[in-house]
User: What shape does this take?
Amino acid sequence: MKPGTQLSLQRHLPQHSMLRRFEEAITCYQQDIAICPETGDRIGGGQTLSNLGIAYRGLRRFEEAIGCYQESLAIRRETGDRYGEGQTLNNLGTAYQGLRRFEEGHHLPSAVAGDLRGDR
Assistant: This one.
């Protein structure tokens, strides 16, 4: 990997999602996920997985989004990224809502609140 490749990808990734160019965003996020292990960037990998989930959710591919959020959540918990953990739990709840699987997402707001208070 050329120096600066990951940084360059990270700068352009949010623009694709904001412009609703979700397929392009997915391609870029997948490239970034492949690079993260090479750089040892676990926190960035967790963020990228969450962003990938957002892109999948934008295409109404909720099951794939949920998979990304679950992977992201595990990394965020492992790395102690409490803020990112709360964001990912929120995104996970939104994906369950998109599938109308309310029973699976109904506990997530209290999990987020507990996490933010440090109840874990």
Notes: The chain has seven helices and no strands.
